[in-house]
Design brief:
With about 260 residues, this protein is of the alpha/beta class. It folds into two domains: about 1-150, Rossmann fold (3-Layer(aba) Sandwich), CATH 3.40.50.720; about 165-255, ProC C-terminal domain-like fold (Orthogonal Bundle). It has helices at about 10-20, 35-45, 55-60, 70-80, 100-105, 135-140, 150-160, 165-180, 185-205, 210-220, 225-235, 240-255, and strands at about 1-5, 30, 50, 65, 90, 110-115, 125-130, 145-150. The protein has an eight-stranded mixed beta sheet with strand order 3-2-1-4-5-6-7-8, with helices on both faces. Helix 6 links the parallel strand 7 (about 125-130) and strand 8. The longest helix has 21 residues, at about 185-205. Bound molecules: NADP nicotinamide-adenine-dinucleotide phosphate. GO terms for molecular function: pyrroline-5-carboxylate reductase activity. This is Pyrroline-5-carboxylate reductase catalytic N-terminal domain-containing protein.
Amino acid sequence: MTIGFIGTGEITKAVVTGLSTAEGEKPVILLSPRNADIAAELAATFDNVAVAGSNQAVIDEADTVCLALRPQDAEAILEGLNFGTARHVISFMATFGVERLKKLVAPAMRVTLATPLPAVAFHGGPTPIFPPDEDVVAMFAPLGTPVAVETEDEYQALCVATATLAGAFAYYETISDWLEAKSVPADKARAFSGAVFYALAATARNAPDDSFATLTGHSATRGGTNEQVLKNLKDDGAYQALWKALDGIWDRFEAGKS
Ligand SMILES: NC(=O)c1ccc[n+]([C@@H]2O[C@H](COP(=O)([O-])OP(=O)(O)OC[C@H]3O[C@@H](n4cnc5c(N)ncnc54)[C@H](OP(=O)(O)O)[C@@H]3O)[C@@H](O)[C@H]2O)c1
């Protein structure tokens, strides 16, 4: 089984690292030559990884081809390539729907969308998948939690939710920066803000049946400091802004469907 990647950037690096460090037999991996530094680093690190001479060589030599190009570059690059009829194409590219991709990779007919998160590198990422292709589920199972869904709208909604990572990190960055402004040393500020972040994640993970509203309620003691911060953020429209941002990403996906 040879898995090819066209677009050797951040997400390809994470997926290739996850696949090459998972238990069991490793797939043979063939990378597009660009980005040259990342491709060379991955090939030097893992015995099962090689760099192809061109994007077309990736398609010709791999059984399955993963597309991880930046959305704004993808169309022009894919239009210059020939996909064989038998190729299974897995696209990681945000905003590209199945129908649009099928036109770009014709005559290949088997197209699956997947959105891995960077945490797949250490086998801890949820990966939305559509349509629910069992080979793609098997590929991502060692990398965390595959989430195969039956409709493209559900897949799109999960992808929109994955656009919140940078905003969530920036929330903890703000807390860390505020601690520093209060003279907490930078390394302690980073460590403490991170520890709060991990504790919250562990709390949510250990109570999978509690809604987020329940978890919020448990954290906001009546008349306490958590309640005050929550109220201030709500009054200032922080959560409405997040909702609006999610709607904006949904609209961007809608525009990229065909
Ligand atoms: N990052 C994430 O967490 C994440 C998660 C899920 C899905 N995605 C999706 O995955 C795609 C890639 O994201 P990314 O963050 O990995 O972006 P990225 O780091 O910018 O990677 C894109 C790669 O494509 C390469 N490239 C440019 N022109 C090329 C060409 N003609 N042929 C082959 N490769 C070429 C770039 O090389 P150069 O560096 O030389 O320009 C770069 O290495 C996007 O569509 C994104 O929506 C990203």
